[in-house]
Write a structure and sequence with these properties.
Blueprint: E1 2-9, H1 13-23, E2 30-33, H2 42-45, E3 61-66, E4 72-76, H3 98-106, H4 114-124, E5 125-127, E6 141-143, H5 151-162, E7 178-181, E8 186-187, E9 190-191, H6 194-198, E10 208-211, E11 215-222, E12 225-233, E13 236-248, H7 251-261, E14 264-265, H8 267-272, E15 279-280, E16 292-300, E17 307-308, H9 310-326, E18 338-342, E19 353-358, E20 372-381, E21 389-391, E22 402-404, H10 411-428, E23 439-440, H11 449-459, E24 461-462, E25 492-494, H12 509-526
Parallel strand pairs: 1-2, 1-13, 2-10, 5-6, 13-25, 14-15
Antiparallel strand pairs: 3-4, 7-18, 8-9, 11-12, 12-13, 16-20, 16-23, 16-24, 17-20, 18-19, 19-20, 21-22
Amino acid sequence: MDEFDYVVIGGGSAGSAAAGRLAEDGRQRVCLLEAGGRNNNMLVKTPGFMPFLLKNANYRFETVPQKGLNGRIGYQPRGRGLGGSSAINAMVYIRGHAWDYDNWAALGCTGWAYDDVLPWFRRCEDNIRGGDDYHGTNGPLRVSDQRWPNATSRAFVESAAALQLPRNPDFNGAKQEGFGLYQVTQKDGERWSAARAYVEPLRGKDNFDIRTGAQVQKLVIEDGRVIGVEIKRGSKREVIKARSGVILSAGAFNSPQILMLSGIGPAEHLKQHGIDVVLDKPAVGSDLQDHIDYVSGWETESREPFGDSLEGSWRMLKAIIEHRRKRTGIMTTCFAESGGFWKVTPDAPAPDVQWHFVPAVLEDHGREKVKGHGFSLHTCVLRPESRGTVRLNSAKAADAPRIDPNFLDDDRDMAVIRAGVRLSHRIVDAPPLADYKPKDRHPVDLNDDAALDELIRNRADTVYHPVGTCRMGSDEASVVDPTLKARGIEGLWVADASIMPRLVSGNTNAPSIMIGERCADFVKAVS
């Protein structure tokens, strides 16, 4: 039986940060458990190979049929392997709006207001632009400007400006509102995942044991305290003992799954699967929130955007060679190159829609092959009112959890996305994007609410930001307290997007890394 001071479950965005910070000073023996592999190959490191990661380093989860999406089954990609989703995502670096964190504090999450978390974001960051009141330069996470954004991505920003929508060169600065190019988690033209930032630099340290291919079966609990983790590697089962505690960081789907497999969760649901109840905690797996997103698509005669053509294929081949030699060129793309934040609801406390502009035609998350060239525009509801659940499909750790985001259950979400899609079309109809003479792939009468709603229900899906299933709070019903310590169980912390009481207004990778950093500090404070 191996024994460590701390065991971290999950080498994703938050888990990498938590494990790395706990291990860096050498005082604690730390074991990092990851079900997937090392993710250290060129497919992962080369930003432009992101579409090929859909079948690699990816759990490829699916939802139950969604009533709000006309009964369709949604797709839920999640990173598998070191770096987690930061190893397969679009590398967009967004923290969310200051209001989000002030709202967390107002909901009882003491110490999580914007002024509280800003120093931690700065601590994480090594921003290529240098440091200021909003950005850091000494952190492990490299944040860069894009090296080679597509001309159409710049045109999107200019078209927004033509509608008097302001430019914003820094969505993580003094204000979030506006349109511009995204900064990305890249270093020297390569993807800079959380694992490359926090884990790989410590590989080989005597006090840091990194174990990949380790499928967690459950937490080992004795007398109300977590004392270890049962894992399976290949056909062998073993227990990894934790003298001081366990940090669960398996993500918004797998963290509640592991808790429920360990007997922590809604009692009746656990009994249905023959699991002994250790702690009846209905909030485990509840409060699932995710960004519902609609992707509009346009075809162009222009070959400027990416596309499936002889010319496009030849250009990509040359770009691969350039990237291998120089780490420059179009293979540094993050695909979601530009975007913006804006209020479509006048009384919203902060922007309620986010746009991601992609200089390629996307259908079904990029899984459907599309001939020709064009561009796509994501329209995302930032603070959805709909709530879903994560439950067990079985008592087997290898089986995927039962995911029900309950998309568009609340009519307020449809009202926001409808208004956002209309603004998307107004932007594309303005020059210079209009000069590309884009042809709408899914034409609809934008003035007909019923027709537009039907199109949205037929095509909308996640933009990959599930949170809330192990929510933080000051109330006894919450899963963790504001120091991320589990309520009702000793020796356990949870650190990932599952602890967010409300979804942030933006991409969730940067906040997840910040959460991992803070968790390590909370754990050190009681060591």
